[in-house]
Amino acid sequence: MIKVAPSILSANFANLQPDVELVEKAGADALHIDVMDGQFVPNLSFGMSTVAAIRPITSLTLDCHLMIVEPERFVAQFAQAGADLIGVHVESTHHIYHVLQLIRQAGAKAEVVVNPGTPLSLIEGLLPLVDQVLIMTVNPGFGGQHFLTPMVDKVRALAQLKQQHGYQFDIEVDGGINDQTVKQVYEAGATVAVAGSYVYGSADPAQRIQDLKVATN
Ligand SMILES: O=C(CO)[C@@H](O)[C@H](O)COP(=O)(O)O
Ligand SMILES: [Fe+2]
């Protein structure tokens, strides 16, 4: 069964607390927080003050996906704000190895993220350093986009590398996840699925979390 991380990018920005509590009660495994700077991606969203505000209202793992240039400037502040896991794009910095080290030094779990156009070869040398790898299954920046089917093979290739080397990291997928696409990525080796519009775009978000779990049972 896959772990589910609802993305609050599709929640009610005017009143996040009920949307956070609802998914926690419904059995979500983490809360996905998309941080966008208007430069790495063409959109703006949350910052560390939102993470700090959410921290006391939930015991869910806070999974912060940083879509910002030079994340080394901010990872310690996100950890301080209460992020449990911090994801940084390999495309967003000249110093990815250093950023991953900084995340762990700050006491959080480290994740490397790859855009759809970025080959796995770029992150192979980083795999011993990470707790999770995030394979983007849409181009980052917006919720509600269509799943990019060619990314299933990328998930499979990463799962093979993981097995060959005996790595323990989780494989997360993000973008266009629903009860159909989740089956494809789970079969390929994904262990965590982010879902934004599929969960929060529904009249019954709790049911949607269960649907993702049942689809991969
Ligand atoms: O990182 C991102 C978008 O850049 C995501 O986490 C989205 O929030 C996923 O939204 P859906 O595709 O599930 O609606
Ligand atoms: Fe995300």
TrEMBL record:
HAMAP family: RPE
Family recorded in the similarity comment: Belongs to the ribulose-phosphate 3-epimerase family.
Needed co-factor(s): Mn(2+); Zn(2+); Fe(2+); a divalent metal cation
Superkingdom of origin: Bacteria
Identification of the protein by name: Ribulose-phosphate 3-epimerase
Record-annotated active site: 34, 174
Cofactor note: Binds 1 divalent metal cation per subunit.
Lineage: Bacteria, Bacillati, Bacillota, Bacilli, Lactobacillales
Organism: Lactiplantibacillus brownii
UniProt function note: Catalyzes the reversible epimerization of D-ribulose 5-phosphate to D-xylulose 5-phosphate.
Residues annotated for a divalent metal cation binding in this entry: 32, 34, 65, 174
EC number from the UniProt entry: 5.1.3.1
Keyword vocabulary terms for this entry: Carbohydrate metabolism, Isomerase, Metal-binding
PANTHER family noted in UniProt: RIBULOSE-5-PHOSPHATE-3-EPIMERASE (PTHR11749)
Record's catalysed reaction(s): D-ribulose 5-phosphate = D-xylulose 5-phosphate
Enzyme class label: isomerase
Amino-acid positions noted as binding substrate in the UniProt annotation, renumbered to this chain: 7, 65, 141-144, 174-176, 196-197
Metabolic or biological pathway: Carbohydrate degradation
Listed GO MF terms: D-ribulose-phosphate 3-epimerase activity
